[in-house]
Write the structure tokens for this entry.
Amino acid sequence: MTEFTIFLENEFEVDKSIYEQWLMGFTVEQTFERRKALVSQGVSPKTVYNYVLSHYRTFEKFEHYLHRPRYFIGQFLFPLPMEVKQELVEKYYGFDEAVMRELLGKKLSSRLRKDLEDISVKTKLPLGACRRQFDNLKRILKQVEESEGQRIIEDIEQKFLLPHPLARLYAHIIFLSNNRFDTSRRKLSYYNFADFEFCASVLSHYWTPTSLTNLEELDENLALDIRDLKLVVARDKGHVEEYRVAVFNHLKSHTSLNPTEKLANQFKLLYRNVLNVGCDLGNAKETKDIFLNLVEKFIEPCALVGLSAADMDHLFSSMIVCFEQLSFFEPISKKRYVTAMTRLLTGIKLMTTRLYRVPKFSPLTRMRAS
């Protein structure tokens, strides 16, 4: 005689633990293995297996609608409370930072999707989870590209019904990918997703024309202002020394940092690097290495003279304050140059002090020891 297992439910319910296993890309068999504890409670293995299988079939029906969250929320086919539907959407578009770290700054192409097997191995996460996160990111990027003139975060919130913190994370990921910022260099391998996401928030706030409107690029006008300033600096031979003296006096009187002769020798290099980074903001070929430049042009030189992250914060803060006090400006251009340098130096300060703090930055440890 053929046996059948039938489930009768009065209400449409979702087992959230099974939903999370499904999102992770585990098979029915793998999820069943994780729920074997129920068997010892007097429930037959077959019943548990069919319970899991029933949920997986339901989630597969969900997925088509989850690609368009607003449609899913309004769908009467699944009689779930609104707050449950909202939670399902949020979890579906949630992601693992380790996976996103591997996708940062890269073109979301079919070739990259084929490389997800390598990412799965590296992150020790199921391939299904990696694919879901890749496809979600690509889907959101496509929507942003089609919404010209919209503010990215608000657009993601409205179209995908995501909470502000998650929408903000996606906006920063898209900002990094759209500008093709390279995060794959060996010297950058010490940094995690949170480090680059923080830097993206700084870049979008200080170095773009507006704060994440559509697919924003770095501010070419800021680059032009710094280029003009660099020409002015080149004509005034005493400017750099005037600036150094002002900064060092400010450090001595307002901070615990006592500038050394080594720092005095590095100041000219650091200032030149600040101007060079600013000049390159309008050049996509140069800006793709912005994070590597932050390490090599600021963090490493400062580490070589024994500065800590707090010392770097004091140094760049003093450079911001003292720049406005310099005497070589023409009154007509002073405001433009001061505004540009404040934006540039603030961004450098925030990003370098964040990246400097990473404890695994062993090259700096070796440099300080030597």
About this structure: The longest helix spans residues 331-356. Confidence is low (pLDDT under 50) at residues 359-364, 366-370. Residues 220-365 form a domain with the Globin-like fold (CATH 1.10.490). The CA atoms of residues 105 and 292 lie 13 Å apart.
